[in-house]
Amino acid sequence: MDARSHWTFRPLALLAAVALTLAGCSGDDPGRGDATTPSASPEPAAPPAAGSCYRLTQPQLDEAHVDAAAVPCSQPHTTQTYAVTTLSGITSPDDAAAIAATAERLCRAGLRGYVAATAGRLALSRVTHAWFVPTQEDLEAGARWLRCDVAVLRTDTTLVNLPASARGLLRRDSALNRFGRCARTNAAGIASGQGGRVCALPHTWRAISAQRLGAAADPYPGRAVRGNVLGRCEGVARDYTGNSTGDIAVAWRPPSRAQWVAGDRFGLCWTQTRD
């Protein structure tokens, strides 16, 4: 499963004030200096607008702030803003960990409703989210907006061009034929998370069942999630492929500890395909 959070938030370095000293002329009063007027604090930039579309790259999804301008949603774009809300409870603009945790929690909570998916269907898809917050300068000036964008990972390094509106993207089961979680690899690659791609692309494995492994507050189940592959996955793989008696290739991929901390609670059953 793909990690879906900004693991670090690196505030921009604050600029140091530089004092400019003018050389005095002979006879100048050393007690007098040129009067200066402090510059007014800049107004923070306006918050983004919900529904806006952007042409971002996959690496940009891991940035806390991007300068890319919105594009018309009728043009090619890879993300769409599904929520603009407030970083509630953030009192210090320098508390990067609190900002990241709050942003991840709020954006994750809103994604499933926007794309109209059950929790299991979302887990079986390559749909993900990204969050963006003000620059450090704007945070210092009091800005507290949070922008949540939806995206679809085409491969592990590229994004899908979204439709004009991504609302309800996973409403139907058939959406997984386009945006589902597939891979072009072997069984070892499934275990290590290699070769991931949307099911619209040629693939050799497909995730066919998402099994919930715990509630939000539960600790990571550890080694218990790694055993009994056939018991978890063989039945659903046979139902999916229509292979009731012959040899069948199945795989089981649970969430990593880091993915669990980020909120993922599903392990995935995979089966080999003929694509």
Name the features.
single chain, about 280 residues, alpha+beta, five-stranded antiparallel sheet, 7 helices, globular
Walk me through this protein's architecture.
Helix content is 21%, strand content 18%. By secondary structure, the protein is α+β, with helices and mostly antiparallel strands. The model is unreliable at 1-33 (pLDDT under 50).
Query: What is the spatial order of strands in the main beta sheet?
Result: 6-5-7-9-8
- Poorly predicted tracts of residues: 1-33
Q: Specify the structural class.
A: alpha+beta
Largest sheet: 5 strands, antiparallel
Q: What's the Cα radius of gyration?
A: 24 Å
Total number of helices: 7
Order of helices and strands: EEHHEHEHEHEEHEHE
Write down the overall geometry.
globular
Number of strands: 9
Q: What is this structure's SSE topology?
A:
Blueprint: E1 53-54, E2 79-86, H1 96-115, H2 119-123, E3 127-132, H3 136-140, E4 145-152, H4 176-179, E5 181-183, H5 187-192, E6 196-198, E7 205-212, H6 229-241, E8 250-253, H7 257-262, E9 266-272
Antiparallel strand pairs: 1-2, 2-4, 3-4, 5-6, 5-7, 7-9, 8-9
